[in-house]
Give the backbone structure.
Amino acid sequence: GKLLGDGVLAVFTSARQAIEVALACATSGDEAGLPLHVGLHAGDVIREDNNVYGGAVNIASRISGLSAPGEVLVSETVRSLARTSAGVRFEDRGEQALKGVGEPVRVWAVREGE
């Protein structure tokens, strides 16, 4: 993970773990009066020293920019990897054009509950 001024970049080994942490952060942020914008994507990254970068990082950043305060948005890739996770449901937000990304990306809002 890495602090980015007013943001945080975190790396997870599973989509399910990323979603669980993202939902917990969004809830905690709301309770503390610090509304967070959260976006998740899964893909290959380049690791160099304490940095992580690459296309997957860019897509996650662009998705977080689409989220409302306290909302967790994920790419279709993350939803596909985690769709059988208990305790969450996904709401389709449609295909979104993301700056610096050639093809539109289907985005889903994550909600707690079946």
Q: What stands out?
A: The first helix runs from residue 15 to 31. The helical segments are 15-31, 55-66, 76-82.
